[in-house]
User: Which sequence fits this backbone?
């Protein structure tokens, strides 16, 4: 069997949150990496350096500080492009987050390309960020929004996909890895079929970019939405990748400074890519911080991250499976070895908020609620679930303590109800 390095040993020292000695936070067990990642010192330092010594507005100043900031900002774009194997940095549009990236496509591409008889195909496991923009587009355009269903294991029902995709499908928008089920979707297969009927594919890569190598060329997709805060970068920054020829044809999303070529009293013309889609002052320091986070992840190695997290996920499932009255959603690591590093579960007769509150009192952070996936929770007939999500900094010891405390919490709640 392949030897898997314990990445937590070499990486935890980079995260101030996991190294604090003086107070109780040093004992914190953070199992909420899918909600937002913790930040390594390399990213925090890059932000501090930028705001201390490089801060100026980009693309407009005639002075050296602005030139420095512009260079660092554009290097961040190059690093982001290489990270996902984009053909050109012009294909990277910086946004506030992944949600804004998806809305950009829904407004700009959607408003200009989608008509009343058209269909948009998404899946039952989508995050609200990849549902609501399409509902709004359906209201504006009169198009139909359709959902691909799930199999018994919580994977995509590919038969249903084949049934629902047709010549009217203009776009298949789906997540790579589910933030609730952990399911990893077969994107290459889906893209092949979508393209065969002339539909484009938008990938929500929020839960995959920090956990596995994502290559837009080999996946052969058309758009990708990513978020800095999920990949060890700062909040306030995300990005849209799109094929250059498609982005060229799309009208602007927001209007204002930076995105214009020429402005007259009644009309304007647009700047070239990528600036056409970046109205106003961007999140400069945050984009630089995101690029530092990407460099950090690459220095560890995404293949190594995947292997380590797969081993941890199997261990997490092993610990949770035997707990009485537990239901874990999504495929097990045996059913899908490349699934995401998280476990979402509920315990019969107990509200997940009670569990997360009790765990919190033992310094263990997990997520409770619908995880922005209400349609998925309705499909499973539950209002709320608990989710423990891992990263390369997680350890088996953390999982041991979590599962032990979970058992104690369940016993406590049962005794007192
Ligand atoms: C699968 C998925 N898509 C989209 C998002 C939204 O990301 P953001 O809040 O950065 O826009 C999230 C965040 O939880 C997510 O997990």
Assistant:
């Amino acid at each position: 069997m392949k030897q898997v390095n314990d990445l937590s040993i070499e990486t935890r020292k980079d995260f101030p949150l996991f190294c604090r000695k003086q107070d109780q936070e040093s004992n914190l067990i953070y199992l909420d990496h899918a909600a937002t990642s913790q930040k390594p010192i390399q990213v925090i330092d890059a932000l501090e350096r930028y705001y201390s010594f490089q801060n100026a507005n980009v693309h407009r100043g005639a002075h050296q500080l602005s030139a420095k900031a512009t260079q660092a900002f554009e290097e961040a774009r190059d690093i982001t492009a290489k990270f996902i194997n984009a053909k050109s940095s012009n294909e990277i549009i910086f946004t506030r987050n992944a949600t804004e990236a998806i809305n950009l496509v829904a407004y700009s591409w959607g408003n200009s390309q989608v008509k009343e008889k058209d269909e948009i195909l998404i899946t039952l496991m989508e995050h609200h960020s990849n549902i609501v923009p399409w509902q709004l587009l359906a209201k504006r355009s009169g198009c139909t929004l359709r959902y691909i269903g799930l199999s018994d294991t919580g994977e995509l029902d590919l038969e249903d996909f084949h049934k629902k995709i047709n010549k009217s499908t203009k776009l298949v928008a789906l997540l790579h890895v589910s933030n609730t089920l952990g399911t990893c979707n077969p994107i290459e297969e889906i893209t092949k079929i979508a393209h065969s009927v002339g539909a484009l594919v938008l990938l929500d890569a929020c839960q995959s970019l920090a956990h596995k190598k994502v290559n837009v060329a080999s996946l052969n997709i058309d758009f990708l939405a990513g978020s800095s805060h999920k990949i060890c970068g700062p909040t306030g920054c995300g990005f849209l990748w799109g094929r250059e020829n498609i982005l060229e044809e799309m009208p602007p999303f927001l209007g204002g400074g930076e995105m214009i070529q020429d402005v007259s009293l009644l009309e304007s013309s647009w700047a070239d890519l990528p600036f056409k889609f970046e109205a106003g002052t961007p999140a400069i320091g945050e984009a630089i911080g995101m690029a530092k986070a990407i460099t950090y992840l690459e220095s560890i190695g995404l293949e190594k991250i995947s292997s380590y997290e797969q081993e941890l996920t199997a261990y997490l499932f092993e610990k949770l499976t035997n707990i009485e009255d537990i239901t874990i959603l999504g495929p097990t690591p045996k059913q899908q070895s490349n699934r995401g590093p998280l476990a979402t579960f509920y315990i019969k007769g107990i509200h997940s908020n009670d569990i997360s509150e009790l765990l919190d009192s033992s310094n263990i952070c997990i997520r409770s609620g619908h995880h922005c996936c209400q349609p998925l929770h309705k499909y499973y007939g539950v209002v709320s679930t608990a989710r423990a999500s891992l990263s390369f900094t997680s350890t088996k010891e953390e999982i041991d303590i979590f599962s032990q405390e979970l058992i104690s919490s369940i016993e406590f709640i049962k005794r007192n109800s």
About this structure: The CA atoms of residues 73 and 284 lie 6 Å apart. The chain has 15 helices and 15 strands. The longest strand covers residues 169-175.
